[in-house]
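Bump. Still looking for Energy-coupling factor transporter transmembrane component T structure tokens.
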Amino acid sequence: MVSKTSPQKSQSVAELLQPIDVKTHPLVKITAVLCMGISTIFFPSLWLGASFLIIIIIVSLPCHLIKGIFKLFCGFGLPLVIMLVFIQGGFADGNKTLIVNILGFNLWLEGTLHALRITSAILVFLTSFYIFNSTTPPIIFVRSLQQIGVPQKVNYLILASLNVVPQMQRKMAIIKQAQAARGLSTRGNIIKRCKAFIPLLGPVVMSSLTDSLERGITLETRGFGLKGVRVTHLRKLPFTRRDFWLLLGTITFFIITIVLTVLWNEVWR
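Sorry for the wait, here they are.
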């Protein structure tokens, strides 16, 4: 006897196993980011944050974002761990259990665990939002907010805020190339780079102001903010069954974490 699997069941399983940047709805992703970050902040144990970081690393593999994740770990996480462990592990109130004494410096267990928990919460927020920002175009995220009834002006403010840094970086790169073509040296030691950076500020600021003015004129010509007008969209953003189960599982896990946190605090009060 050869068992046959229905095509519908095989398709649903394949959809669940697809990478997060292929099928997952933006609202599901931002909900997961907020739930993981908030639960890591309030949960009194370090293991939840460490588990989330392992999950984030696994999720980043099919999205090809593991290089950026490790850059965040090494460039931001490692210095933060060293600083907080030195401050909290050595000088925080409530330190009772001595770990080691290094040349007269006492490192305590309670402060070290607290420092690692703070660092894990910050890294969970940072790395999960990095994955969300890398796998979700801002316009798609704003489109998902429109689906749940967020006003257009609020959506525009969010979209403009998310685009301001990439636009400034692109403008800076273009103006830097133009200045280099005119003979301005942008390489050398830190003093030469600062001197070369100052002439770039004027064109970048002026071009940003010009872009803002042109964007405002474009919005007016397209009838932005008109009331009583049915808004249409070229691209549909469906909320699939996979998104529903992922959202339900995320919210359920968040509620369980909050309940366990309350019970933990009641027991160890």
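The first strand starts at residue 98 and ends at 102.

Edit: fixed formatting.
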